């Protein structure tokens, strides 16, 4: 087994960040109506979309689903990078360090940070102002970038 390779860990770390953000954007694409309705509901509590969509659930459940999809992306990224490291006979600590680095991002709300979120949403805003289309564009692009970076870590 090779020793710890920090270059591979860095590439996998950045790849997993893009992969997690891409999966999150794809989730937002499926929830565009709910998201827009909640925004409208907070501005005007008597809006008709809240009753039309049957959004009797509390906002906390909707918000917790967002973090659940972050967790799904996290798990997918860790599994892919662990398989890559296992196939290339890299040291187990590469995967453990990647896990720790990615896990640190959750308590500090890295993905929901205003500045980081704004940076990731700028790609979709170049093409359209529609929230759903922005998330499709960003989701596909970031998932693809993350996958390509993880593939690059396999070739190193």
Order of helices and strands: HHHHHHH
CA-CA gap between termini: 14 Å
* Helix proportion range: over 70%
- Number of β-strand runs: 0
Arithmetic mean of pLDDT: 87
- Major sheet, described briefly? none
Radius of gyration based on Cα positions = 18 Å
* Percent in strands: under 5%
Counting DSSP H or I runs of 4 or more residues, the number of helices is 7
Shape: elongated
Poorly predicted spans: none
Structural class: mainly alpha
What does it look like?
It is a single chain. The protein has 156 residues and is mostly helical. It contains seven helices and no strands. The chain has helices at residues 6-30, 32-43, 49-52, 59-87, 92-105, 114-127, 131-155. Helix 1 crosses helix 5 (92-105) and helix 4 (59-87) runs antiparallel to helix 5. The longest helix is centred in the middle third of the chain and has 29 residues, at 59-87. It is elongated, with a radius of gyration of 18 Å. The two termini are 14 Å apart. The mean pLDDT is 87.
